[in-house]
Design a protein that fits this description.
Layout: E1 2-7, H1 17-27, E2 33-34, E3 38-41, E4 54-61, H2 65-80, E5 103-107, H3 114-119, E6 134-137, H4 140-149, E7 156-163, H5 176-183, E8 188-189, E9 192-193, E10 198-199, E11 209-215, H6 218-229, E12 237-245, E13 257-266, E14 273-277, E15 280-284, H7 290-297, E16 303-310, E17 316-325, E18 330-332, E19 344-345, E20 352-353, E21 360-361, E22 366-368
Parallel strand pairs: 3-12, 15-17
Antiparallel strand pairs: 1-4, 1-5, 2-4, 3-4, 5-6, 7-11, 7-12, 8-11, 9-10, 13-14, 13-16, 14-15, 16-17, 18-22, 19-20, 20-21
Length: 398
């Protein structure tokens, strides 16, 4: 019995680690018992990440692992190792792209969760990782080890369907009516954007994945995927597998921190909000919808709590926000104490006068109470959340 992990077989121009892992598991002899495969999301700002930030792991059971290792050796050499060294430029990001560097590891005994806890929140290195019983390849070992060390204490599931190779260059065909139907199931999560009415299950860009249906139960994920696959409106698939995942776990976030806004800059076209605060810079992207709207409402002196990830440049990317105190946005003249009419200025240094009863008062202003656009904790719209983001209405659940 032991644990197998894999990562980093893809790049922007192609490849798919989940597909490679599925093919590897299908190739194993019948005397190897395959456990529930795991798809584990990690820190999204890793310097050497390729296309995604997910790694794979699985528990394998057999009578003698010494007979299994040569099989893994052969598959590594013939299938996985040749996937290294590919790179493709990005048209969407200025980040320097790195070559794919597949890594595979085997642990006879599952390592503790410490490496995962760090890898989901910040940059980690292979040097600080637990030492594998057997390892193959390069940087992908980092994600592979982190995936194996995931404790799986807060879980969801994802059923992934892969396309037939002859369809890779063709538009994806998925029955939209069926997507709408399964979205109504209580166990299915994040399959559609309720604001736009669009599907969220198909990846963008060049990927062999046809769709990924996320759910709160394994049975729900499998049934929903099977319904889609069995529809005449969905293209024929190559394979289908259900993964246990840390998606929607919130494992990447720590406790909330409180900050005071010092200055706010809103991009004139893209409307991203960049916040200079007393604890460091933060950003709330326009795609975040209500969260971005709340961030843009703030003025210097306002205080708020946030949860988010700090990127490689030290900027906190806000994922959840709550305003705790705020100042007035506008002022107005007070009311007349006698007749209740709004006072008006008589001119510079001449005080105020009631336009009705003509009584005079000293010059002055009163604050206009302006409530935030949202009260309590706010999160991005469904389509703008990270895979790891735990919905606010799940907070408190195990």
């Amino acid at each position: 019995m032991g644990w197998l992990g894999l990562d980093d077989t893809d790049y922007l121009g192609g490849g798919c680690t989940t597909q490679v892992f599925d093919s590897l598991l299908q190739s194993l002899p019948s005397w190897v018992e395959v456990g529930q495969p795991r798809l584990v999301r990690l820190w999204p700002f890793a310097e050497n990440r390729t296309r995604g930030n997910a790694a794979l792991a699985v528990e394998l059971r057999c009578e003698d692992e010494s007979t299994l290792i040569p099989i893994l050796d052969a598959y590594w050499s013939s299938v996985i190792e040749p996937l290294g060294g590919f790179v493709s430029p990005s048209t969407m990001s200025s980040r320097v792209q790195v070559t794919s560097s597949p890594g595979m590891v085997w642990f006879s005994t599952k390592p503790d969760e410490g490496y995962y806890r760090k890898a989901v929140r910040e940059e980690v290195t292979l040097e600080e990782a637990p030492v594998a019983t057997r390892s193959w390849g390069g940087r992908g070992q980092i994600g592979a080890i982190a995936a194996i060390s995931w404790p799986s204490d807060r879980i969801t599931y994802e059923a992934i369907a892969w396309r037939k190779p002859q369809n890779y260059l063709l538009p994806r065909m998925i029955d939209e009516g069926m997507i709408h139907e399964i979205d109504a199931w209580p166990e299915i999560i994040f399959s559609r954007d309720p604001r736009k009415g669009t599907s969220l299950i198909a990846p963008r860009g060049q990927s062999p994945v046809l769709f990924g249906v996320r759910a709160r139960t394994s049975d729900g994920a499998r049934k929903a995927a099977s319904l889609l696959v069995g529809s005449d409106g969905t293209e024929e698939i190559q394979s289908l597998r259900v993964f246990l995942t840390n998606q929607a776990s919130g494992d990447h976030l720590g406790t909330p921190v409180e900050a005071e806004l010092l200055a706010l800059e809103v991009h004139p076209q893209r409307k991203h909000a960049r916040l200079d605060t007393d604890i460091g810079p933060m950003v709330a992207f326009y795609e975040g919808g209500p969260l971005n709207k709340l961030a843009r409402w703030l003025i210097p002196g306002d205080r708020f709590q946030v949860r988010g990830l700090i990127d490689q440049h030290g900027v906190l990317h806000i994922e959840q926000m709550k305003v705790t105190s705020y100042g007035p946005r506008q002022k107005q003249r007070p009311l007349c104490e006698d007749c209740g009419q709004r006072l008006k200025s008589m001119g510079t240094n001449q005080g105020l006068r009631c336009p009705s009863c003509r009584r005079r008062f000293e010059d002055g202003w009163i604050d206009i109470v302006a409530l935030p656009p949202f009260e309590g904790w706010v999160e991005p719209s469904t389509d703008a959340r990270r895979h790891l983001a735990r919905p606010l209405d799940w907070v408190g659940e195990k």
